[in-house]
Amino acid sequence: MRPAREPGRGTLAASVIILASRPGSLRRCLASIAAARPPAPEEVLLVLNGLDDECAAAASEHARALPGLRVLRGEARSLGGARNMAIREARGDWLCFLDDDVVLPPSYFAALDGALRRHPDASAVGGPNITPPASPLFERCVGHLLGSWLAAGPFSRRVSGFPGDAWADDRALILCNLALRRSALRSEGLLFDEELARNEENLLLRRLLDAGHRALHAPDLFVFHERRRTFRGFCRQCFLSGEGRAAMTWKLPSSLRSFHLLALLPALCAAGAALRPEAFLVPAVAYAALAAGHALFLARRHAEGPASLGWLWVLLPAAHLSYAAGLLAGAWTGRPRRS
User: Average pLDDT for residues 52-66, to the nearest whole number?
Assistant: First the structure.
């Protein structure tokens, strides 16, 4: 496994890869890349997955500020397929994947460069995705919940991070902020699975780690990530996450862990209370009390006002039930589906 190439004058041997679908968010993302301090990435690859004139227009607005910007067009395909197209076109030693709804702090590429220098044996490097401080109350509540253990289990590290650099796996890394060593993927013959609609990075990371490579979570390598703006959008996000986990389990059964199934307990409790209230009343009330206590804890921890308590209380069971529904739906279909 060869170490990262020494950057040239003010450049980082990295190709930034972004799938574009939201022109407004994309403009903010590209502006933050252009404003970041050196070292700058070698190139920025913007993938238009199908025809999207608005995103192409947003890219053209930043062409002068980002001289390494390239727009890749192709027929609509799965998210994994679109990213694989960019991997084949990329020139950098490192593939830095970002979502189009993230904003980078000015220190982002300096932090990535520092992490690669501190840990030259890493094949994957990522960090937290943080809720923008100026977000509306609902979006802040979503971020607080995703960063809590009771709601997200070990996946909460994707938001809350670690106190310092830590070797990690797919539970602490997420594709909106993830750099992969291209030579490691090539040596193992790995690309994103093009049949998965979600969790494609989880499956790739598990296969990379199973092959003996190492993944690093660096807390100073963070991005500001927009949250779902509506209750329905949040529930859909949780449902798709559960469905993606089930599809990934069909692909790699050994990746399933007991904590992936914990969200089924509140779902069973709710179903039991509806069918036999006398038998499930106590656990249902206990869960509601736990959710209320958790809402109060998060509100105090993040210095939110009383107005946040209602959302924080409702979002916890909504996350558990939506994820459980997606998990069961994915298990029922019995196979991955294309997006």
Answer: 83
On whether both 39 and 92 belong to a single domain, the answer is yes
Residues in Cβ contact with 89 at an 8 Å cutoff, skipping those fewer than 6 apart: 45, 70, 72
What domain range is 244 assigned to?
235-333
Which of 208, 230, 252 is a domain's end point? 230
CB-based contacts of 287-294 (< 8 A; 24+ apart in sequence) = 287/317, 288/317, 290/150, 291/316, 291/317, 294/148, 294/150, 294/151
Query: Which residues partner with 41 through β-bridges?
Result: 12
Token code pair at residue 335: 């196979």
Residues 64 and 117 in one domain: yes
Structure tokens at 291: 């959710």
Between the alpha carbon of residue 178 and those of residues 166, 174, 322, the distances in Å are 14, 6, 26
Half-sphere exposure of 285 (CA within 13 A, CB side): 6
* CB within 8 Å of 9: residues ≥ 6 apart: none
Domain final residue, candidates 212, 230, 248: 230
Across the strands, what pairs with 178? 97, 126
Q: What is the pLDDT of residue 116?
A: 95
Q: Are 315 and 234 in contact (CB under 8 A)?
A: yes
Check the CA dihedral 133-310-128-40 and report its sign. negative
pLDDT at 72 exceeding the cut of 50: yes
- In-domain check, residue 198: yes
Same domain for 249 and 175? no
Calpha distance 219→216 (Å, rounded): 10
pTM of the model: 0.87
Residues 287 and 172 in one domain: no
In the predicted model, is pLDDT for residue 292 greater than 60? yes
Reference 308, options 151, 179, 187, 137; nearest CA is: 137
CA-nearest of 55, 31, 29, 226 to 140 is 226
Residue 319 near residue 145, CB atoms below 8 Å: yes
